């Protein structure tokens, strides 16, 4: 298939393109900087195109594409103002422009990447659950999901929005908890945890995430929202202990008991994607950390 990807130079984009090329798809990566695209994809295995994400630019780029996979997004930072949804206004604008371009080109399929953050902090969350985000980033993503649900009634392009659990894997950016744990354990340093490590997170390993997206791209029947995750969560304590076990850094954890535990996170019901795509995760926590370790060793 001919597949166009936004946000191709990010963690998810780089890995997804690796899989799509293995599956012999024709991939076009678009972004604002040709230099960044060439740095990330130095050979000629994919097409690289620059865009300002305007309707005019996207309409030209989407010509003859069969699938558009939208990964580009302004992410939440530690200093993001929780009162300002305007911090993420570009996210909705780009989605709007992409949808208009899809409609003009009669593009068969548009895949949007959403997030578990659109949901309340509950378990067994189904796609029919009303949005109740706990962060301003989640609010912005929920608005996009609602917009896409509305637009689906207006255009022929099949729209799928994938609500991804938290991603992790080899090559993810520094500054995130999982990456921090791996870096410290690899260097035999002490992992620090707030409270007793009771806060929980539903993660999905990068290999599982890209398989799910690829399967969605190849399916010609589905549309709407789909949860993409494991359906379970791990405590920070369990994650730290597993990372230390794999990197032979056992017991090297400091619990900052004077600081409160974080939140007990959301857990998604993933039965819909299992039923519609016969897809489920293949990587458990231990196996995925072992895979990360192998990648680090191969890099060395």
UniProtKB/TrEMBL annotation:
Q: Which residues form the NAD-dependent epimerase/dehydratase domain?
A: 3-229
Q: Which Gene3D superfamilies match?
A: NAD(P)-binding Rossmann-like Domain
| InterPro entries for the chain | Epimerase_deHydtase, NAD(P)-bd_dom_sf
Source organism, top-level taxon:
Bacteria
Family stated for the protein in its record: Belongs to the NAD(P)-dependent epimerase/dehydratase family.
PANTHER family in the cross-refs: DTDP-D-GLUCOSE 4,6-DEHYDRATASE-RELATED
Q: What name does this protein carry?
A: Nucleoside-diphosphate-sugar epimerase
Protein's organism:
Aequorivita viscosa
């Amino acid at each position: 298939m001919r597949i166009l990807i936004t946000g191709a130079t990010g963690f998810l984009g780089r890995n997804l393109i690796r899989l799509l090329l293995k599956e012999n798809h024709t991939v076009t990566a678009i972004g604002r900087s040709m230099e960044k695209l060439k740095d990330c994809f130095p050979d000629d295995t994919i097409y690289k195109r620059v865009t300002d994400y305007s309707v005019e630019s996207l309409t030209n780029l989407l010509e003859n594409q069969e699938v558009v996979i939208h990964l580009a997004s302004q992410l939440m930072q530690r200093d993001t103002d929780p009162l300002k949804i305007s911090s993420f206004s570009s996210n909705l604008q780009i989605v709007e422009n992409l949808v208009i371009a899809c409609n003009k080109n009669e593009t068969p399929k548009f895949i949007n990447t959403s997030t578990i953050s659109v949901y309340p902090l509950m378990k067994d969350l189904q796609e029919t659950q009303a949005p109740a985000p706990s962060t301003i980033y989640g609010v912005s993503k929920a608005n996009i999901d609602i917009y896409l649900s509305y637009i689906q009634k207006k255009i022929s392009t099949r729209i799928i929005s994938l609500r991804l659990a938290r991603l992790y894997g080899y090559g993810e950016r520094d500054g995130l908890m999982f990456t921090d744990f791996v870096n410290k354990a690899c260097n035999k340093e002490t992992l620090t945890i707030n409270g007793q490590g009771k806060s929980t997170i539903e993660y999905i390993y990068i290999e599982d995430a890209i398989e799910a997206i690829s399967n969605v791209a190849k399916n010609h029947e589905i549309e709407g929202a789909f949860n993409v995750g494991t359906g379970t969560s791990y405590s920070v304590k369990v994650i730290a202990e597993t990372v230390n076990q794999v990197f032979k850094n056992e017991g090297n954890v400091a619990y900052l008991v004077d600081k409160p535990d974080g939140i007990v996170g959301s857990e998604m019901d993933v039965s819909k994607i299992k039923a519609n795509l016969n897809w489920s995760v293949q990587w458990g926590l231990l196996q995925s950390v072992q895979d990360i370790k192998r990648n680090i060793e191969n890099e060395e």
